[in-house]
Design brief:
343 residues; alpha/beta; Rossmann fold; six-stranded parallel sheet; five-stranded parallel sheet; 12 helices
């Protein structure tokens, strides 16, 4: 029996982007044994795949350092894989890939498109053209291993059934209103829509809709609690304290408003329309939500700020580029949402 190991350790958004390819893989090769190797926190993403195994990795303790990677390699070998897909392509997976190749395993890795990205992110002679989306580059790895899949044949699942806890959470709202998710945070400030502007978006949309807020950690939840208390039709999903339960809520939304961040990818995986807001990053870098439409991706003013995109992660802020996202008008965000929820 063929047994595929899939390596992708982080980040949440990149792990979430694996899902469309895995769906196509499972459908096309129902007898293929698959083991996902990733961090424990991401396990809920893969529960829809009944025949997929999940191996947790902890690089701070169990698999720390070079010796830890050797231990991980030995453990992975015991699973008797036949194919290894490296969807991460970082130092750790480079090392593991080398060990597997020395043991004559069939291994393929993600193409990072470093040269193309350098042209897209450089300040001078910038080449502003779209790169191959990450979801399709994941699919290419599987194809190179001999598992021919086509993402144009991807089929979305039905929304997740709400558990009792999720249902009780939702029942506190008006069931006649549309459900809108708002995920206002990202890993870097350069990808976050100014909170004073996002508050205006929330304040307006909550009048006729139910708003679910997504965020985690003390800083983010403290900010979101202010909105939850201020507006009657707003709930903070951090109260659920569970990624499993948040996935249930997200899969039943009508629209998600997201930065260039994980929540947009999670929603897109369930065929939820995503209005994504882009600051120092850009959809052309290949990180747009799956099958997202151009009109739903609101990008900061590239003429006023020609250095956009500055990086893949939004972690490079040129001088006087702190307010790039203020060029995205609040009314444009509201209009994009209303186009999706109103007949």
């Amino acid at each position: 029996m063929k047994h595929l190991l899939v390596l992708r350790f982080s980040s949440m958004g990149d792990v979430a982007m694996m899902i469309p390819s895995l769906r196509c893989l499972v459908k096309s090769y129902p007898d293929l044994k698959i083991t996902i190797v990733s961090k424990k926190i991401y396990k809920p993403f893969f529960k829809e795949f009944e025949n997929c195994n999940f191996l947790e990795v902890d690089f701070k303790n169990k698999y720390k350092g070079i010796r830890g990677l050797f231990d991980l390699f030995k453990e992975l070998k015991k699973l008797k894989p036949t194919h290894i897909a490296d969807l991460h392509s970082v130092l750790r997976t480079h090392f593991l890939r080398m060990l597997f190749r020395l043991s004559f395993y069939r291994v393929k890795k993600l193409e990072k498109l470093r040269k193309e990205k350098k042209k897209l992110f450089r300040a001078k002679n910038k080449v502003l053209k779209p790169l191959v989306p990450t979801q399709y580059r994941y699919a290419e790895v599987f194809c190179k291993l001999g598992f021919n899949i086509d993402l144009t044949n991807h089929q979305f699942p039905l929304p997740k059934a709400l558990s009792n806890q999720s249902q009780q959470f939702v029942d506190s709202l008006d069931s006649r209103k549309k459900l809108i998710g708002v995920a206002p945070f990202a890993s870097y400030v350069g990808k976050i829509y100014p909170l004073d502007l996002m508050q205006k978006v929330v304040a307006y949309l909550q009048q006729d809709n139910n708003i679910f807020l997504f965020g985690n950690g003390d800083y983010e939840t403290a900010k979101l609690k202010v909105w939850e208390k201020a507006f009657p039709n707003v709930l903070g999903c951090y109260n659920l304290n569970s990624l499993d339960l948040e996935l249930e809520i997200i899969s039943n939304l009508d629209v998600m408003i997201s930065m260039d961040s994980a929540n947009g990818h999670i929603a897109a995986n369930y065929n939820i329309a995503v209005v994504s807001l882009w600051g120092l990053t850009h959809p052309f870098a290949g990180y747009a939500p799956f099958m997202s439409k151009n009109e739903n991706m609101l990008v900061s003013d590239n003429e006023k700020y020609p250095l956009i995109p500055t990086s893949a992660y939004g972690n490079k802020t040129p001088r006087n580029y702190e307010d790039v996202m203020r060029t995205i008008d609040v009314n444009d965000v509201i209009l994009a949402v209303n186009k999706l929820i109103k007949p």
